[in-house]
Amino acid sequence: MGRPDWESEYVDFFVARAPALRRTAYLMCGDWQIAEDLVQTTFVRLYVHWRRVRQETVDAYARRILTNLFLSRRRTAHRELVTAEPPDRHDPAPEFGGWLELADALSGLTDRQRAIVALRYVDDLPVAEVAELLGIAEGTVKSHPNRALQALRSALETQLERPTR
Q1: What is the per-residue DSSP string for 6-31?
Q2: What percent of the chain has pLDDT over 90?
Q3: What would the pLDDT profile of 40-58 be if each residue is shown by its tens digit?
Q4: SS3 88
Q5: Is 124 left (phi over 0), alpha (psi -120 to 50) or beta?
Q6: 97-132 pLDDT, tens per residue?
Q7: Taking Cα atoms as reference points, which of 91, 53, 46, 49 lies closest to residue 69?
Q8: Beta carbons within 8 Å of 39's beta carbon, 6+ residues apart
């Protein structure tokens, strides 16, 4: 017996959108393992509600889940166990040519600024959609990037001035 139609649609959506959501999550949090956890949790929650989500809004719904998970992770971060020893095995982060430098520069921004920059300039969402996703005023979406972009320019210029090894 094959998969139900809705489950096949879900799998197709996952295959098509997981890489982009993973990239967005990484740019928000700056850590591949956390980004992977955020995306995995996003897709688990999306799976549970898949049959009730309108197909024309599923991408926005997935982004909203991801963004809310990212912004709420600080509340649960204290529950994580930090150890002095690294894990036995480390999977190298995928290379995206320039993404790592950008993610490093983004790490100096606040969570909200990182989310706005990732959603506005990487996912290319309009101001109104970013404001709705984050539950903030459109004016805030417009003002945060100015400060964030100044900080990013400064950080990226500093990186470019560093001698390469």
Answers
A1: HHHHHHHHHHHHHHHHHHHHHHHHS-
A2: 33
A3: 999 999 999 999 999 899 9
A4: coil
A5: left
A6: 566 666 677 777 788 888 888 888 888 889 999 898
A7: 46
A8: 18, 21, 22, 25, 66
